[in-house]
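Sequence in, structure out. Go.
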Amino acid sequence: SIEQIRGNDDLLGRWTILKINALDNFAMEMADVVRLQQPALVTARNLYAQVALNPRAAVWYSQAYENSLARYDFTAIMAMPYMENAPDPKSFYAALVERAKERPNGLRRTVFELQVVDWRHDQKEIPTDELVETVKDLYKAGALHVGYYPDMLFENHPNPAKMRAVFSLKD
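Output:
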């Protein structure tokens, strides 16, 4: 029973691995079908930041950073400190980059996905200048791939000219 599984660390660990593998296997099966028509398909898995930061989070989310790096072309980590109620956003980002550095191909295959809205505070927009500084900090720390969500095209947020300029610094 689920109660017995949750009450036993060994069973819970095995159950978690089964769930992670089932989800990843299903995604890979779908990718194989799509590749029949689109052989250049690139896959990505979106993960909660806690999955990279806290080994116990695999149980909560049925996600594993190491599995994702091994099975998908890219892993997009939701680097969203306001969603996570992180007390210090800069330290939060730095910890994510350090985790990526610790894993084989971690930096090469990880996309750091920034939030442009603070959903916990009435959809408050994260200022573009803060996003620009965050991208700069991530690049300085070694990040290779940075994105953001959502793109509020009709509200001009974040400012596309400023974001284009900071993304051009990658090279």
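Check: The CA atoms of residues 50 and 57 lie 6 Å apart. The chain is about 50% helix and 15% strand.
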